[in-house]
Known about the structure:
This protein is an all-alpha fold. 70% of the residues lie in helices and 0% in strands. It has helices at residues 20-39, 45-67, 78-97, 100-124, 131-151, 156-188. Helix 2 (45-67) packs parallel to helix 4 and helix 4 (100-124) runs antiparallel to helix 5. The protein is globular, with a radius of gyration of 19 Å.
Amino acid sequence: MAAAPPAPGAGPDLAEFTVWKPFLVRAVVSLVFGFVTIFWREPSTLVLSLVGGLYLLLTGAAYLWTHRMAHWGPGSRVLTDMGGGLLLGAGLASLVLRTDTVFAFAGAVALVAAGSAELVRGLAARRHAAARDLVVVGVVSIVTGVILPFVEPLGAHALLGVTGGGALLTAVVLGIAALSYRHDSALSAPRGSGSHGEPDPVN
Length: 203
């Protein structure tokens, strides 16, 4: 016997599960960066600036993609746009200026702002399927940003270690979430979608 379709408002909308795409991109970027910080034993300031700056740039782009999707419900995008913009700006500053201090303090401001925006959005959109993930990732980002200025005197290795640790935690949370939402979107799709010329809901 076929199950009755869920009533409106009874659960997450199928469209919400499309957040798996930017989540997966962010997870991959964070995972690659985290592994680089683990296996690069004695990174120089140049390595910190290039690798760290590229990480902030790519994360900022995927962050903006995440929060410009149309499925988060009503609410201002000002905070999340600001957070994404600061991540992009911190990445560019690190790539151009190439000092420990710039990465530590620009990265700290960007991570705290971006994390705070995700925390606020996650708490505001509690009915959204990914709300809890945003809260967890937001807290990780805030903690990482707060720690960075305190380890700046220890040099590039410490800065990469702290940032990489936060990136790995983020990769785990968003990677599991992305795969889960992709699976759920396939299960929740109406029977026959993807056929007769209709797009596959998970692609």
